[in-house]
Design goal:
This protein has 4 helices and 6 strands. The protein has 185 residues and is an alpha+beta fold. The chain has a 4-stranded antiparallel sheet, with helices on one face. A two-stranded antiparallel sheet has the order 1-2. Strand 3 and strand 4 form a beta hairpin. Helix 3 packs antiparallel against helix 4.
Amino acid sequence: MIKDVLRDAESRMKSTVSVLEEDLLGLRTGRASTGLVEKLPIEYYGTPTPLYQLATISVPEPQLIAIRPFDRGSLKIIERAIQASDLGLTPNNDGQIIRLNIPALTQERRNELQKVVSRRVEEARVSIRNIRRAAIDDIREFEREKLISEDESKRGQDDIQKLTDRYIEEVEATGRRKEQEIKEV
């Protein structure tokens, strides 16, 4: 029983970390990254579709993202979606490829991005703590129903805490890496 609770808590914590990593990939740093645009929703035949399903995305230079749609007819749609997004980038469309020049970040923008990273990291920490609380509640419930002993309950709660500490450290490390990326000129 306790193992099931631990397994469930760990998988939920793991997914919290991966959601954070995906979230931070979409944050713009000084250098080009396909993660910036690949999840961008494009309204394609009435269905929001992630850009990576409609085009080949590459980074031919450190400050440039090239987007080559599989269907040339979708160039305008992709271009409009990029302009409407909060990326703050202007697409250059030559009829075959959309190029996105990634300008260097200003110090002010770097500070804003660091605040965004901090906020997202804090949200992930809170999420992991909520998972911990739910798992500990489950274990205490097992103890109240006399399904496990007090010692087993205590051991289970300690294991949950160790798991929580490990994943919070992972979240912090992810945040630190992204902040380093943002600081790079």
